[in-house]
Write a structure and sequence with these properties.
alpha+beta; 49% helix
Length: 448
């Protein structure tokens, strides 16, 4: 039997039982639509979650910290510290500390794929900022680079270059300023425009007798960083050497970076794909390392499992539809037994009969799959419009970025769903088709 003759015969047979075929295909439509909608929802939720993380931090960055665990790492910078329970001399717990020193920076920079290693430190004392009658508590970060654009920061106004006697602030920093003399019920003071303004920085520490000691510094705001919805929005950055001098005043001693190291170093990777491998190598050197890519990987794993679960729910509906297809094809064989016998009597082979019935079963799956893909895609668009509107309203109230989509249907999903539905039809019709193909022509012709 020629292929075109086979296809024509299959469609003629399906057309003779339009009502039964339609009722059977509805089960496939529902199952396929459920697969498309639920998996699309899982993909949309995954994309929405990862989009939020892209705004939190650059995924090509790795944060490296000293390792205070009881271990000895390879390379330099490992120092043994004796901790006494009562603060006394010997007899305490010995702990090996892997500091992030200048030697560590060179060691990490030698890792393939690392484009920059930037030491950073934080203020180790109380700092107040004053602008006219407004004041604010400040957490200041010292960066071991001159240009913050290396870390992907962009200037909204001014520059992101770190200059002597100047600071670069995040776009949200002015919101921390308040009027300490404001009366209850008074209209809040507008957020100050700090770009290119002089701020008085007051350092506060206490001596052994509890007496307060202050030191005043004047710092110019050289630039305001463009909003990133990340750490930089609320941060104040200055040169690392100036921050080191401030910390030395707080501590009352010189800081030896080769021995005491830095609080943290930021490692810039050449690409996102290399981040996890570089982080593993840094940990193997004995340091602590963390990256947002690890969180993204965990989130992706969770949503992949969620997609499998959602797809399994839809597959259950397709399984029910498969039983319906098998039942329909079995009834068709009983009704067309004489027809099968006649086909064999005029020369049709077992393979021809098998192909006809398998083709009819596949046709039911294909028609149901097409309907299910269209229904699933349409339902996904409706859900997407309603969900995005709701989530955008929630994001506006909470100050977060609005989601771009809640339901995402990639091109491969409708194709997969259509092929899977057709395959379900073939598998469901396999037993009835084999039964039809193995009928004895004489017995089939005598069947009443």
């Amino acid at each position: 039997m020629r292929f075109l003759d086979l296809v024509r015969l299959i469609f003629e047979n399906l057309g003779r039982r339009k009502g039964r075929v339609a009722m059977t295909a509805i089960g496939v439509v529902i199952g396929t639509a459920a697969v498309v909608v639920l998996v699309s929802l899982g993909i949309g939720l995954q994309r929405s979650a990862t989009e939020q993380l892209y705004g939190i931090n650059d995924l090509t960055q790795i944060q490296v910290m000293p390792n205070y665990q009881d271990m000895v790492g390879p390379g330099m910078g490992s120092v043994k510290v004796e901790i006494s329970p009562g603060g006394g001399g010997g007899g305490g717990l010995q702990q090996n500390v892997k500091y992030v020193t200048d030697d560590s920076l060179a060691e990490i920079a030698a890792i393939p794929g690392v484009t920059a290693v930037i030491p950073r430190d934080y203020i180790q004392g109380q700092v107040m900022l004053f602008y006219n009658r407004l004041e604010s508590y400040a957490g200041i970060t010292g960066m071991g680079i001159d240009d913050l654009s290396i870390l992907g920061m962009e200037a909204q106004t001014g520059t992101v270059m770190l200059e002597k006697g100047a600071i670069v602030i995040g776009v949200m920093v002015p919101r921390n300023f308040y009027d300490p003399k404001a009366r209850p019920g008074q209209i809040p003071t507008a957020f100050p425009e700090l770009y290119n303004q002089k701020l008085k920085m007051v350092l506060i520490k206490y001596d052994q007798n509890g007496n307060e000691i202050r030191k005043n510094l004047n710092m110019r705001v050289a630039g305001v960083i463009k909003e990133s919805r990340g750490e930089s929005d609320w941060s104040i950055y200055m040169r690392l050497d100036e921050l080191t001098a401030i910390n030395e005043w707080f501590l009352g001693k010189r800081i030896n970076r080769r021995r005491e190291g830095y609080n943290m170093a930021t490692v810039q990777a050449a690409s996102v794909d290399q981040v996890l491998g570089i982080a593993d190598q840094i940990k193997a050197l004995g340091y602590q390392a963390s990256t947002m890519q690890e969180f993204v990987q965990g989130i992706n794993s969770f949503y992949i499992i969620l997609q499998v679960v959602f797809g399994g729910v839809g597959a259950i509906a397709l399984l029910v539809a498969a039983i319906g297809i098998a039942n329909t094809m079995t009834m068709a064989i009983l009704e067309r037994t004489r027809e099968i016998g006649l086909m064999k009597a005029v020369g049709a082979t077992n393979r021809d009969v098998l192909s006809v019935f398998l083709g009819e079963a596949a046709g039911i799956g294909l028609v149901g799959g097409l309907g299910g893909v269209l229904l699933g895609w349409s339902a996904g668009q409706v859900i997407n419009v309603l969900a995005v509107a709701y989530l955008a309203n929630q994001a506006a109230q909470q100050g977060g970025p609005p989601p771009s989509s809640a339901v995402v249907t990639p091109l491969w999903l409708p194709i997969f769903a259509l092929v899977f539905a057709t395959l379900i039809g073939v598998v469901s019709g396999l037993y009835p088709a084999l039964r039809a193909a193995t009928l004895v022509p004489v017995n089939a012709l005598k069947y009443e």
